[in-house]
Design brief:
48% helix, 2-enoyl-CoA Hydratase, Chain A, domain 1, binds coenzyme A, alpha/beta, 2 domains, 10 strands, 10 helices, single chain, six-stranded mixed β-sheet
């Protein structure tokens, strides 16, 4: 299969997927999301020999700096909800993949980038990584599972704070809070992710797949929360606040929200 925005490389039966939009800090545009969907729905499941998958970002600045703000600027509420639903469905494919998926977080993991990392089974962060859900800066809310998975990983207290303030976490704080599995120097991120997958590859493959299913099942009760996130995301994409927030971002100025 051909991919425009994903670089795929196999090494010792580990699939390394690089989100390759370095100039836009690897922001997830529609094309990239559709390619992730194709990869996890139609391609990777047929590579039955794989030990696991690593997802990382091109360059040394960003894992993924969010959904591509330029693209969803003009969406109305219905289109916004559809976008969030599609994104959640794609990230569920990753979360439910039967082999371990490790995020190698090499820089900013913001918005959709933090949500992508959280959809992976394990996260190895570079010392330079920063995590956050800054959507309220733009006058919207996370739409790819962020309001639900952040609580699962770090608990309601800190999740509420990060979601409301848009503050970013340094890698060591993400480790302390349980958002990531390990923090290593930048050059060690990929080797560490590979070593983790090699370790798991020595275990019973059926058992590994069943652990993933069983752990995911613990959070099934949250599905209403995901649905609520879709409708609330849709409601925020249609607002003047979002138009202003996105315009301010692109014009590199502070937003003046009207509350409409
Ligand atoms: N969508 C689209 N483009 C993005 C992007 C995003 N989420 N994040 C960064 N970019 C683009 C910028 O527009 C800029 O493009 P330009 O060179 O054409 O102006 C380029 O990537 C570099 O980003 P810039 O903001 O100039 O880098 P910085 O070092 O000053 O700041 C960040 C880095 C990550 C703090 C900043 O880019 C940022 O806040 N990004 C948005 C994060 C966000 O809100 N994500 C959630 C989206 S729902």
């Amino acid at each position: 299969m051909q991919y425009e925005n994903l670089l795929l490389e196999e090494e010792n039966d580990i699939l390394i997927v690089t989100i390759n939009r370095e100039k836009a800090l690897n922001a997830l545009n529609t094309q990239t999301m559709l390619e992730l969907q194709r990869l996890f729905a139609d391609d990777a499941p047929h590579r039955t020999y794989l030990k696991g998958v690593i997802i990382t970002g091109a360059g040394d600045r960003a894992f993924v700096a969010g959904a591509d703000i330029k693209e969803f600027l003009a969406l109305d509420a219905e289109q916004g909800a559809a976008m969030a639903q599609r994104g959640q469905d794609i990230f569920f494919l990753i979360e439910r993949f039967s082999k371990p998926v490790v995020a190698a977080v090499n820089g900013f993991a913001l918005g959709g980038g933090c949500e992508l990392a959280m959809a992976c089974h394990l996260r190895i962060a570079s010392e330079t990584a920063r995590f956050g859900q800054p959507e309220v800066n733009l006058g919207i809310i996370p739409g790819y599972g962020g309001t639900q998975r952040l609580i699962q990983y770090i608990g309601k207290t800190k999740a509420m704070e990060l979601l409301l303030t848009a503050d970013m976490l340094h890698a060591q704080d993400a480790l302390r809070l349980g958002l990531v599995n390990d923090v290593v120097p930048p050059a060690e991120v990929l080797p560490k992710a590979k070593a983790l997958i090699e370790k798991i590859a020595a275990k019973g493959p059926v058992a590994v797949a069943k652990v993933i299913e069983a752990v995911n099942a613990f959070f099934q009760y949250n599905e209403d929360g995901f649905a609520r996130e879709v409708s609330e995301f849709g409601a925020t994409t249609g607002t003047d606040d979002f138009k202003e927030g996105a315009a301010a971002f692109m014009e590199k100025r502070a937003p003046q929200f009207s509350g409409k």
